[in-house]
Specification:
heterodimer, A: 250 residues, alpha/beta, 2 domains, 3-stranded antiparallel β-sheet, B: 243 residues, Rossmann fold, 7-stranded mixed β-sheet
């Protein structure tokens, strides 16, 4: 299987505090891989390292199947307000992003329509400015902005937080469609095991800055081998008793 | 214990009236956890706020009757309403951090109750919060949303209310902490005639915690069913999530 990314012995420290330690894994071209773990396990730090927002303290990240295009890796932040300019028309934002490409599309209007329709962003909102959109619309507009620069790897940081159950399922389907339509690889960071179960072929379980388990999502979530994964699954189902909780938290 | 009959709640607008809720009837009895399930924007928070008349009259038009121990909350004197809010019906809001005045440290809130120090410490420890000495010096802007929510719950429990109302208790927090809350709420309803009303979109949480569940959809509330019956009735609508 062709690799798109390989992470080798990656570590990240802030002063003396270790945030990530000895992280190694590969991402295959065209797959959807999940990164799971509780708050503070280092998931977002890992995304920031892969996108180059911060630099690792040690180890390296190699993009195997990506050329030197700096737009090849894009990150959908948890707070989508950070991606969209609140005072610009969404249509202009997307048009500008399309124009960043090396090879411009023959028909700009058609390309805009293709991108907007793939994220279910209705035409009636194209002329709206960012701050006039609801949270869900902002998220879809931000996603369109990322797709407009034709990334190879798209990282989604907690895309399901604050979504109701119906929206979560719609989003899972939307991400699957995007993957096929735009021929990209997706990495989805989430503490929502149920959403990852439906979306990702493989999953990485992180605990205190380390990878504790990696493999087929359904298999891992069905037969977890690490005690932390077992704990996460039990916590997700709200099945923990007080002593189990205290033991883990302390 | 509390009988709620909301005939209609609508939002006043310059040109039109938007109907938010209609014909909502609930009858909450003691020793039970009641849950209202519903998607974003169905009016769950509006409903719970209307119970103790927390909605702004300039924005909302409310036609309701809420009976607390045979007295109608919508007709009693304001002072009496304040007493009910302070002592018997407590809320834990979704955006708990903004339930606090950011210029006052937490000692202000805890000292109001003058309760047993051991009880405070026990509750803080249970919810994995900093100890009393440390927490009392902290300001609301220094704590995370999840911590603020737990502090709200501790404060609410210290007043020994009869009814606890929680808005989306699992949103934005780790499932382990939600788990902790679940255990505490189950303990709470065993004491006296206490009950809990919560609104959520977290189906699994509702399933694990509730004695009775109702669905809020298209401005109306279904009747409350016991948890097992609820899921067999609405299984097809909810199956995507329970997966």
């Amino acid at each position: 299987m062709e690799k798109i990314l390989s992470v080798n012995n990656l570590g990240y420290k802030v002063k003396e505090k270790t945030i990530l330690e000895d992280i190694s894994f590969d991402v295959n071209k065209g797959e959807i891989i999940g990164i799971a773990g509780e708050s503070g396990s280092g998931k977002t730090t890992l995304a920031k390292l892969i996108t180059g927002i911060i630099s690792p303290s040690n180890g390296n990240i190699k993009f195997e199947a990506v050329n030197n295009n700096k737009n090849s890796v894009q990150l959908l932040f948890q707070n989508t307000g950070q991606i969209l300019n609140p005072f610009r028309k969404i249509e202009d934002v997307i048009e500008e992003a399309i124009k960043l490409r090396k090879n411009l599309p023959d028909n700009l209007e058609l390309e805009k329509e293709r991108i907007f329709s793939s994220v279910n962003f209705q035409k009636k909102y194209w002329e709206n400015i960012g701050c006039n959109l609801s949270g869900g619309q902002q998220q879809r507009a931000a996603l369109a902005r990322l797709l407009a620069v034709q990334p190879k790897l798209l990282i989604l940081d907690e895309p399901f937080s604050a979504q109701d159950y119906e929206s979560k399922n719609t989003l899972v389907e939307l991400f699957k469609n995007i993957k096929n339509k735009f021929d990209i690889t997706l990495m989805c960071i989430s503490h929502d095991l149920n959403a990852l179960r439906n979306l990702c072929e493989r999953v990485v379980i992180m605990y205190k800055g380390k990878i504790v388990e990696i493999g087929n999502t359904k298999e891992i979530l069905k037969n977890p081998s690490h005690h932390y994964t077992k704990y996460l699954i039990k916590a997700e189902k709200y099945d923990l008793d007080h002593s189990e909780l205290m033991k883990r938290i302390n | 214990m509390i009988k709620i009959d909301i005939k209609e709640i609508s939002i006043k607008k310059h040109t039109e009236n938007i109907l938010l809720l209609k014909n909502i009837k609930l009858n909450l009895t003691g020793n039970k956890i009641f849950t209202i399930l519903g998607k974003n924007g169905t009016g769950k928070s509006t409903l719970i706020k209307s119970i103790t008349k927390l909605l702004d009259n300039n924005i909302y038009e409310i036609n309701a009757e809420v009976l607390w121990e045979e007295k109608d909350i919508y007709k009693i004197e304001y002072e009496e309403l304040l007493k009910i809010r302070a002592n018997y019906i407590k809320y834990i809001f979704q955006d708990a951090v903004n339930s606090f005045n950011h210029l006052k440290n937490f000692s202000y809130y805890f000292n109001k109750f003058c309760v047993d120090e051991n009880e405070i410490n026990d509750l803080l420890k249970y919810f994995i919060l900093p100890n009393k000495e440390k927490l009392f010096k902290m300001y609301p802007y220094e704590v995370s949303g999840g911590m603020a929510q737990r502090i709200s719950l501790v404060l609410a429990l210290l007043t020994k209310p009869k009814l606890l109302i929680l808005d989306e208790p699992t949103s934005g927090i780790d499932s382990a902490i939600a788990n902790l809350m679940l255990l505490k709420l189950k303990e709470f309803i065993k004491e006296g005639e206490n009950s809990v009303l919560l609104v959520t979109q977290d189906i699994l949480f509702a399933q694990k915690i509730s004695d009775e569940i109702a669905l809020l959809n298209n401005s109306t509330l279904s009747e409350f069913y016991n948890t097992e019956d609820f899921f067999s009735k609405y299984e097809s609508d909810l199956s995507l999530v329970c997966g």
